[in-house]
Write a structure and sequence with these properties.
This protein is of the alpha+beta class and about 230 residues long. The chain has eight helices and nine strands. It has two domains: about 15-90, Orthogonal Bundle (Arc Repressor Mutant, subunit A); about 100-230, no CATH class. The protein starts with about 20 loop residues before the first helix and ends with a helix.
Length: about 230
């Protein structure tokens, strides 16, 4: 079901702040922007650049986004990041916000970068910790930056060398990131058991090329688990 924008709601009254050179062209562009937003499915995370296909000036795109945010039609998740809300009407839960992992993936798609969870976030995803972090941290081949989201949450992208992102097995890559954060001296028997649980779903043949990308102590630790065949 589409969002059902009322495309004629501004037909008779235009706020003076939205006047621009060429009145008909201005209102026409804004209608095109509204139409494009109206084509989106509720639950869509989007950027001003997603509306460039309308051919509208960037200034008009930003004006429409500002207006619709104030009207509550869309939500501004962060600077330059918007959300067409999915609303729960069955249980009265209101707006269902997107997982912030989804926001990170949309940013990665837009910027054409690789991202890999690291730090406490990677540890949580792999089962080393049950604590869900407020700050999601990713290694990336793109620029380092921090995106401030609603309710104090942040997404942090940390630039790293390309070789750290060259793993063929993405789960193994995330495991290596988590182990680096732990440090060799902090690997307990409990952590070793978690490592075994992760490796149980990864055939050894599929990681041979990736072994060369690991620090020596992590390579030895992982190889030892396969050699012992304890999973």
């Amino acid at each position: 079901m589409k969002s059902g924008f009322l495309l004629n709601k501004f037909a008779n009254v235009i706020n003076p702040m939205y006047f621009c050179d060429g009145f008909n062209n201005c209102t026409g562009e804004m209608n095109k922007i509204e139409t494009e937003i109206g084509k989106m499915e509720p639950g869509t995370v989007f950027f001003p650049s997603d509306l460039a296909c309308t051919g509208a000036k960037s200034s008009n795109i930003l004006k429409v986004l500002e207006r619709e945010t104030k009207a509550g039609t869309i939500v501004r998740l962060a600077q330059g990041i918007y959300y067409l809300p999915k609303v729960d009407t069955k249980y009265g839960l209101g707006i269902i916000y997107p997982p912030y992992e989804e926001v990170a993936k949309r940013i990665a798609d837009r910027d054409k970068i690789i991202i890999v969870p690291t730090g406490a976030y990677a540890q949580n995803l792999l089962g080393f910790s049950t604590q869900v972090p407020m700050n999601l941290v990713y290694l990336t081949d793109g620029a380092s930056k921090t995106v401030a989201l609603l309710n104090g949450f942040t997404i942090k992208f940390v630039h790293t060398a390309q070789k750290n992102l060259a793993f063929r097995n993405k789960t193994l890559m995330m495991l290596v990131c988590a182990l680096k954060d732990f440090g060799k001296e902090h690997i307990t028997e409990e952590y070793v058991q978690k490592i075994r649980e992760v490796l149980a779903n990864i055939p050894f043949e599929s990681i041979k090329e990736d072994l060369a990308l690991m620090p020596a102590w992590i390579k030895d630790l992982i190889t030892e688990q396969y050699e012992q065949q304890v999973f």
